[in-house]
Design a protein that fits this description.
Elements: H1 2-18, H2 23-54, H3 59-92, H4 98-108, H5 110-118, H6 130-149, H7 157-185, H8 195-211, H9 218-265, H10 269-296, E1 304-307, H11 308-317, H12 320-323, E2 326-331, E3 336-340, H13 342-360, E4 364-372, E5 376-383, H14 390-395, H15 413-423, E6 427-432, E7 438-445, E8 452-453
Parallel strand pairs: 2-4
Antiparallel strand pairs: 1-3, 3-8, 4-5, 5-7, 6-7
Helix pairs in contact: 1-2, 1-8, 2-3, 3-6, 3-7, 6-7, 7-8, 9-10, 11-13, 13-15
GO molecular function, one term: protein histidine kinase activity
Organism: Paenibacillus soyae
Keywords: ATP-binding, Kinase, Membrane, Nucleotide-binding, Phosphoprotein, Transferase, Transmembrane, Transmembrane helix, Two-component regulatory system
Length: about 450
Amino acid sequence: MLFVLIALCTIAAILWLSEPGSAVNRRLGALAFSGGAGALAAILDADWIPFAADAGANAGTLLALYRLQAFSSVFSYYGIPYFFLLFAMSYRGIRLNRRLSFAIPGLLLLPIVYCLVFTPPYNELYPITFGIVVWWAVPYIAAGAGFILTKRVPPTVFARTHWVVCFAVLPPVLFAMIMNYVLPSMGMLRMWVYNTWIVGLGTLVFILGMFTYGFMGIRILIDRRRYDSTLRAVTSGTAMLNHAIKNDAGKLRLFAEKMKRYAAETKQEELLADVEAVLSASRHMEEMVARVHRRTEDLTLRLERADLADVAMEALHALKPSLRGIELRTELRPGWTFMLDRAQTSEAITNIAMNAIEAMGKQGLLQVSLTETKRELILEIRDTGPGMDRSMRMNAFEPFYSTKRTGHNFGLGLPYAYHVMRKHKGSLQLRSRKGEGTTFYMAFPRKTLQAKRAGEETP
């Protein structure tokens, strides 16, 4: 049980610390903590209290440990179904007005209050009255499982994280429902000892999911912090580099112009040609530094209400001369408007689409579609190019990383697009395999960007 205690409390801490503002993470963290409380009660009962008694602890210490055991046990039994249902409702994306969002958690507490007030108090054999608790705990857990399994997830990279959540959360909770409530209500007590293995399995799925597809946004958060720190370093570095080179290039141009006038006056054609080459090089240096600086400087959004489908169509229309033999298919239903920086969003779409076009060469299929979930609108840009291996996927958003060997490619297109999405409080993700093409997902948060469908009021 010590493993269960450590595992569940660690998971709770990770969930709470990773994104404190997320109701989904807070409630799932509370669910994990409730399970950890049950493990603590079992450890107190089996090890700590007997050890304290054998060591000659006084009556006050033993009473305090007993009360901690009683509180932990009761909190676990009542907390698991309660917090699981609240988590499932948040995860499902059930939209409630402000009044109901406060009232429903309170209403769901009523069976717990009834059991605390009107059923016998805790004792070591019957910590709760199983015959009564089973009638509300099982429906809570069954309803929560139904909410999670019926969550609509479009067939994108987000579907994988959804199934990670399902396999990490549902088996342990459903198993605990049988062992903690159903079987004890039939007289088979202390069945919770078998929860250890299923909790271990859920913990393993949680850890693997966190480091592969992500779990409740935790992998995304790790990536965000890494990319954000890299972008900050690049921003400050290129700002200093831009200032230094711009000054030196300016001096170079000034003296070259003076030499050019002298060469023209003295009719030294060979010197004039050399000076023109120097001036051309100085202009090229300034242009290159300016292009890098524009892509790495901190973005300031100029928000305006815009139709996301229109913005995407405008960006794609400008790319038609670059398509050559590539087929473009779009599924962009107009009507969803957001508070966006139109220019920056269009440039981000252009960068991703150009990456796809360049990857496919002279033939292929570029598909751009817009799908909606309860919380986000997802712009999907899919190509039939050669795809990426694991190393390429891991480095795709790193500044200056590029597989292209052209002199005009700085490897800043995808980091810039990522930066634009972060500024909009959204996310940019990719899914790719070698030989299977690449798909980028630009997820725009509906609530944060005040999304409104044509004919609807802004939420």
